[in-house]
Design brief:
Elements (H helix, E strand, L loop, with lengths): L8 E3 L12 H10 L3 E8 L5 E3 L6 H4 L10 H5 L19 H11 L2 E6 L6 H14 L8 E5 L2 H10 L5 E5 L4 H9 L4 E5 L5 H9 L3 E5 L4 H10 L3 E4 L2 H8 L3
Helix pairs in contact: 1-4, 5-6
Bound molecules: SN-glycerol-3-phosphate and magnesium ion.
């Protein structure tokens, strides 16, 4: 497996706004646009299988009730999350982590795997994702960056797969978040864009870490953040940011 190469543009939830979120269709669109990195969210099914989904329930993406941590993987992997986005994506289903990583590898995409535990499953989710990655043949994995808003999940994953680079996620910069990122030996502190200041980026850099920022959809903002020293941005509008972010 090659190393995470700090791409300047990371497509949010696989295909951003151009595809149903956290789907293989989104990966295909990101690759066809010429993007080199994606982000996706990983949660455990009721029977402990890591799958790509952001919410703890199916309502928003599938238009039906159901709690992810109560449903078996077989049912989740057969759940249509394309139809609610647009009829053109009818039949697009929730992918498992294994399928998503394989597709990234096939498409030449680097992946920021965000561990997104359902409440109460932080340690278990981190442990399962970490052990899955540790057991995977490294030659078959795309370049990876692990991240999570949950320090517990990130720590549990790190115990299983120490060598993978990781990032602590937080909506707003503060000293405690930076301390947590350092305690977990993270390579990056990933921050929300709201209220972000150049001084925050400088503080992270002074601590020896990088910064990635979500969710940035305007080229002007992406340019300003790059000027502050931000290493890259997550975006739902890769088609708008790609021209700027392709320039080394
Ligand atoms: O990792 C960046 C971003 O994905 C974090 O927010 O809620 O979209 O997972 P969210
Ligand atoms: Mg995410």
């Amino acid at each position: 497996m090659s190393r995470w190469g700090w791409p300047r543009l990371v497509v949010h939830r696989c295909g951003g706004a151009l595809a149903p979120e956290n789907t293989l269709a989104g990966l295909g669109i990101a690759a066809r646009l010429g993007c080199v990195a994606v982000e996706f969210d990983v949660m455990l099914s009721g029977d402990g299988v890591p799958v790509l989904i952001h919410d703890e329930t199916l309502d928003r993406v599938a238009g039906r009730p159901g709690q992810v941590f109560r449903l078996a993987a077989d049912e989740l992997l057969a759940t249509d999350v394309g139809r609610c986005f647009h009829p053109a994506f009818n039949g697009e289903t929730i992918p498992g982590l294994e399928a998503a990583l394989l597709r990234c590898r096939q498409l030449g995409l680097s992946a920021n795997l965000e561990i997104k535990p359902a409440a109460g499953f932080e340690v278990e989710t981190g442990r399962v994702v970490g052990s899955f990655l540790a057991a995977a043949h490294s030659a078959g994995l795309p370049p990876l960056l692990l991240s999570s808003f949950s320090a517990q999940a990130l720590e549990a994953a790190a115990l299983e797969v120490e060598a993978l680079p990781r990032a602590f996620l937080t909506t707003r910069f503060d000293a405690q978040a930076l301390a947590t990122a350092r305690r977990l030996a993270c390579v990056s502190l990933n921050l929300g864009r709201c209220d972000l200041q150049a001084a925050h980026v400088a503080a992270v850099r002074d601590a020896g870490l990088r910064t990635l920022v979500y969710t940035v959809n305007s080229p002007e903002e992406a340019r300003r953040l790059a000027g502050w020293g931000v290493s890259g941005v997550f975006s739902d509008r890769p088609e708008l940011l790609l021209p700027d972010c392709s320039v080394p």
